[in-house]
Amino acid sequence: MATKHHGTPRERLALDTYIKLSRATAAVDARINRPLAEASLTTSQFGVLEAVWHLGPLTHGEIGRKLLKSSGNVTVVIDNLARRGLVQRESDAGDRRISRVALTATGTALLEAVFPAHVARVVDAFDSLDADELATLSTLLRRLGRAAAAAGNQPEPDRATGAHALTAVQTAVQEDTR
User: Fold this and answer.
1) What number of other Cβ atoms are within 10 A of residue 91's Cβ?
2) Which of 12, 33, 46, 113 is the most buried (most CB within 10 A)?
3) Which residue has the higher pLDDT, 25 or 149?
4) Quick check: 40 and 83 in contact, CB under 8 A?
5) Residue 59: DSSP 8-state
6) What domains appear along the chain, each with residue ranges and CATH number?
7) How confident is the model at residue 175 (pLDDT cuts 50, 70, 90)?
């Protein structure tokens, strides 16, 4: 298909790469996250549950920063998870104005049931890349994410992992491939 934009070679390459990155992200996300619906979970709900499961009780703000979600979105997601009995809000021992979100026994059981298959889907989604290619992709995406965040005044990627909007399992997979 012809394009109406006849920019510089760098512009054309950047646009082509952006389109490929967007399409790859959508395809990988669909492949990995579609089965979450079987557990009646949205991607955001799974992200909250997974972050709290891996990191322990977190404040709404901490969850929002980990998942790059607004505080309003995080509140709605947590409210829905609490209604289902998967999380509960706990007062912070040091400051009662702060509440932390913690998994309930039901939430823990659900994560323990769905997490192994989720990890398998993540690994399977990257099977077309060998270990060196996966490591290179990880490095390039980290660099791209940091540069985009710096240029757009977006939140910094997580310093511990270099992840920008990744769930804890995606970060764990990155750690295993380093």
Assistant:
1) 11
2) 46
3) 25
4) no
5) E
6) 38-115 (1.10.10.10), 126-178 (no CATH)
7) very low
Q: Are 67 and 165 in contact (CB under 8 A)?
A: yes
Burial class (CB in 10 A: 0-12, 13-18, 19+), 86: buried
Q: What is the pTM of this model?
A: 0.74
Integer Cα distance of 152 and 58 in angstroms: 26
Residue 154 pLDDT > 80: no
∠ CA 62-25-15, rounded to 5°: 115
The string of pLDDT tens digits covering residues 95-124 is: 888 899 999 999 999 999 999 999 999 999
Q: How far apart are CA 11 and CA 73, in angstroms?
A: 35
CA dihedral (129, 132, 136, 142) positive or negative: positive
Dihedral angle sign, alpha carbons of residues 148, 78, 26, 129: positive
Task: Indicate whether 35 pLDDT > 80.
Answer: yes
Sequence-separated (6 or more) residues with CB below 8 Å from residue 173 = 119, 122, 123, 126
